Model the fold of this input.
Amino acid sequence: MVNVDTVYKTCLLILNKQQRGYLNPIEFNKLGEQVQLEIFEKYFEDLNQQLRIPGNESEYADRVKTLEEKIDIFKSEPAATTYDGVGGYFYGTTSIAASDYHRLGSVIYKNIKEVDPIQRKQFLLVNKSPLTKPTTTYPLYINEGEHQSAAGPPPVLHPKFFVYPTSITDSSDITFTYIKKPKSPYWAFTQDATTGAYIFAPNGAARQDFELHPSEQNEIILRILVYAGVIIRDPQIVQAASQKVQLDNMNEKS
Done:
């Protein structure tokens, strides 16, 4: 976790504004949500790149290990499924919050075997031969579409996947893991009725810290400052923060 109040106050300090006029809490909360998602999505692209590069055995400088540690925060325990007999597919149960699910991880058969994923086109070829077609010993799954369990708005959607052979229909046999979406950061506040000043509410019910790894505090602040510079129309802030973000990214990948 990264403390939301620390990030906000650091941004205000760098913007050199004593009052909260340059970046008010509403603007900060919106920017914080956007920045957190940008950094979160970047993990997967960075991991893909680093897996192509020979690693090292250092305990603290292995970049693949570092990225996996950041992603591990969002990995779930195996979740239950429901079988839709009409559609012939499994889907995540309504116990998963619609805003919680982000990416499908592993599909697991009878808690002992990971089911291998396959694309529809490949499956059509594999299923033609008795030697390669899926069995309960070597099952396969296709991840296609989303199951809608409630109309909304917004609609409640859940991960949906077809498991083969089609003789597998017992929902207790199939579980899955997934990557959770980070909760939106929120600097909870009250407003002074006389001065209009914003006052941090550390124990407010809506207060939410950034869910990213603590090492991301610097990256969060810099990226928020880039957007803040656009809002206050200060090109120096935009340029300085953008250059620092780019430099850090280059150092991470070099």
